[in-house]
Amino acid sequence: MTEPLTISSEPPDYPGMNFALLRQEGIKHIERLAGTIWTDYNTHDPGITILEALCYGITDLSYRLSFPIADLLAPAPTHSQGNQQPFFTAREILTVNPLTINDYRKLLIDIDGVKNAWLEPIQEPSPILYFNPARSSLTFESPDLPEFVKSYSEQVKMNGLYRVLIEAEPQQNSFFVKQDVKSKLHQHRNLCEDFAQIEILPVEEITVNAEIEVEAGFDLNELMAKIYFELDKFISPSIQFFTLKQQLEQGKKTEEIFDGVPLNHGFIDDEELQRFGRRDELHTSDLIHIILDIEGTKTIRSITIASDQLPEPEAWALDLGINTAPKLKEISETINDIIFYKGQIACTINLEKVQDKLKRLQQERRKTPSVTENKDLPIPLGQYRDLSEYESIQNEFPGNYGIGESGLPASVSEQRQAQAKQLQAYLMFFDQLLANYFAQLDHVKDLFSYQKLDPKSYVSQSLTDFPGAADILTQYPQPSPADQEIDLERRNRFLDHLIAQYGEKFTDYSLLLYESILEEKLIQDKVAFLQDYPQISSQRGQAFNYTDANQIWDTDNVSGLKRRISRFLGIPHTRQTLAGSNDIEGFHLIEHILLRPTSRSGSSDTAQGLTFARSISQFARSTQSNSTEYVTCSSANHGLKDGDEIQIFDAGDYNGSYSVTNVQLETFDIPSAFVEQDSGKWVSVNQHRDPYSFQISCVLPDWLPRFQQPTFRQLVQELLISEIPAHITVYCHWFSQEKMQRFEAAYHQWLQLIADEEASPAGLQATVNELLELLNIGSAEFVSDQIPKVIGYMVIEGDDNTIFTVI
Length: 807
What we know:
Elements: H1 19-34, H2 46-65, H3 69-72, H4 81-84, H5 90-93, H6 101-109, E1 114-122, E2 129-132, E3 137-140, H7 147-151, E4 154-155, E5 161-168, H8 174-187, E6 194-200, E7 203-214, H9 220-235, H10 244-249, H11 254-257, H12 270-275, E8 281-283, H13 284-292, E9 297-307, E10 317-319, E11 325-328, H14 331-334, E12 338-342, E13 345-347, H15 351-364, H16 414-442, H17 444-447, H18 469-472, H19 481-500, H20 507-512, H21 519-531, H22 533-538, H23 560-569, E14 588-591, E15 611-612, E16 618-619, E17 631-636, E18 645-649, E19 656-659, E20 667-670, E21 679-684, E22 695-701, H24 710-723, E23 729-735, H25 737-755, H26 761-775, E24 782-783, E25 793-797, E26 801-805
Parallel strand pairs: 5-6, 7-11, 7-12, 22-23
Antiparallel strand pairs: 1-5, 2-3, 2-4, 3-15, 7-9, 8-10, 12-13, 14-22, 15-24, 16-17, 17-20, 18-19, 18-21, 21-25, 25-26
Helix pairs in contact: 1-2, 2-16, 9-15, 19-21, 21-23, 23-24, 25-26
């Protein structure tokens, strides 16, 4: 039975919608202001009539304020909802670039043609590197190295390198699958990580021989299809994809469903993914349980398993190949390996019928019910309401006032008409206030939008259509410079609020540059930050795709970290030339792991036995020192700081460890008195044995006005430290225009060579050496002798002079 509609006698939830309360509060206000001259507050009093009309207008405004937020933000039907929507969807804002091993496995399994995938960390690079702590040099592995060198060399264990193993779907071309995998991986590669090996696992064919006694009344062809299907699913499992609807029906929360990488085929359950790790052996006990769980099987008389790698049948367990993908032998060949018995009678199987039934079972285990199925939660669509529509309170007055749309009769006197105009002019102030409030409410969707650069935060609407307005209103005031400043300040605060919703802040940049930057530019930077937020949030740890030969220079193929920091600093994030301009701002990020020695860069097996090293410091002329306790050493770009330890060797009187002091731009002191002319070599005691793993160099221009300010440089360094993942070390390099030009030439050439698989190894190595030298990274050149190359000679000359020179 339908319940009758009733009007509640309870007061409204919102005080602004309570007409009686508003009227009561209005009278109290009148009593406080004019209680000595106004005492009649009855309904017939014109002042009370005006108060009641105003209260009614306020209740209308309050009623509209109570609409659901979806209605308040709903765009007009004539506007595109996508251009007005101030929210991101769950798939846009909750998903991330692959981060964990499981994330990458999901990403790879989502590729058509990939059945399963695994990632394994590689700590031993190819070729293997050794670090000599006594001389701070890196060498390749070589059987020809002297034993005394081997005795104090330590193998370098790199981090961030992965080996990718792929199990392809049957009848897939391995070459094309590998290309698809490589492309997808490098599109989603993380900072300071690389995929050193990508392998398509060869199939290891598994044979199951069994004698099975079945119960009466079962179709043997269907039973054979089910047994083969279940055994194949166990030996070579396929990962199941779930739809969004299925995930929600399982009771999963939104943040759990979208936690990870967005996939094209649906969603993968983490627990199921963990179950399908790589097997190293198969047990017959597992196969027995699978077969006996199928309705119609009675007993298993015998069962053995074998493979094409180990053809000898095993009754208990079969060891699987390390780098193979097990797969049950095709049904056409397996049908003769599994024999069914009814009592003592062996039964025959119809292969065609078995294949038809098996095909039906396999079709039910598709990768996903529908690739086009909705994989995102839609943003709630509100009902558009014309919130700015306002009816003048003059129309709410009784007709005898003569101020509504009907007006006064033409027969009334001029004095009566003037009185009506006077009242209309008085009410215009209230009409304008209320009309503006309604317009402001309609403008809420624009205030909370990051799609518009318009700084206007206060809006109004015209009263020209209101009764008497044509005769009363002659002009509208224009916005003053003060109003524009208020709009800019309010717009900035609204954008700060939107940014804070994501746990971010823009205050460091805005406070630092408040006096030197226009507020319009600050608004533009904040709007760009919000519009780009899904990328700079989910992809903050993503690296650039160095395999894309079409996206080398003048492109936005940059790391998510660079894009994010650039948005915070209000500078372009695209990779472009900086050296040739005095006004283009930007910087470059170089991952050291991509500069490591590889077979592509000339470090093949033919190079075994060669060693390579680069001067940790380039030595220059000495400076005079009159001290008998300290020797002053001159060295350009030495990179030392007070308290660093250096080791001097092959120097006679100066052999030993020293703590450097009085470090200047090109000089430092060691605590030793001058003895006599001598020569020697030195290295840093704390030299990093692995200059490649989890390290980044940031190259910035030092000639631009903003980049010369100490406060801005400090902001850049603090941003890098706070935004870079905690396991990555960053080095800042402030280059002059001349050095930046040299760097960008080498960097551009290196980007071209690393993207070209056919590039000359010698050319690639020469470019890598140039970058290593400019960035003071690790090693830069090959030398032909077997002993690690000396970093430099220290020569002591008379009169307390110390000279470091490169030999």
